[in-house]
Amino acid sequence: NIELGKNVNFAKNSYVYANDNGVLIIGDNFAMNNNSQLGAASGKIVIGNDCSIAPNCVLRASNHTFTSIEIPIREQGHTYGEIVVEDDVWIASNCVVTANTRIGKGSIIGAGSVVTKNVEPYSIMGGVPAKLIKKRFNT
Q: Under DSSP, is residue 49 helix (H, G, I), strand (E, B) or coil?
């Protein structure tokens, strides 16, 4: 369930998985640094070309279900979604990207950010939750 493009590099202690009918697609010229995770279990993660993920990042296409207070959270199952990272995106250290989000082309996700909503192309985002800091423009 994993499709890799050309020139794909994973550093030590990085994890990628697409079990339980999950799908993980990574484009060309991709690098993921130490201790990062791409978790597509039962969900879908698509990463475009020329993308970089720094150390200690988590992209996970699922989340715990927690609708009942009568049942322990760990027994309620999961909801599944999709993460799309378009071409030429840099996700800096210690970031989290949640299910059902799209990071637009040419964007930068600042260190320590949590992406919970779609990111427009050429955006620089930061914070928890991630918010627009500024747009990238040619000078």
A: coil
For 12, the 3-state DSSP assignment is: coil
Active site residue 64: yes
- Which residues have a Cβ under 8 Å from the Cβ of 48 and sit 6 or more positions away? 27, 85, 86, 87, 88, 89, 105
| Catalytic residue, candidates 9, 13, 20, 64 | 64
Query: In 1-139, which residue ranges form alpha helices assigned H by DSSP?
Result: none
Strand pairing class (123-126; 131-135): antiparallel
CA atoms within 13 A on the CB side of 97: 37
Question: How confident is the model over 42-80, as pLDDT tens digits?
Answer: 999 999 999 999 999 999 999 999 999 999 999 999 999
| Nearby residues of 69 by Cβ (< 8 Å), 6 or more positions away | none
**Burial of 93 from C-beta contacts in 10 A (0-12 / 13-18 / 19+):** middle
Q: Could you tell me the two tokens for 50?
A: 């020329």
Nearest to 101 by CA among 57, 61, 136: 61
pTM confidence score = 0.94
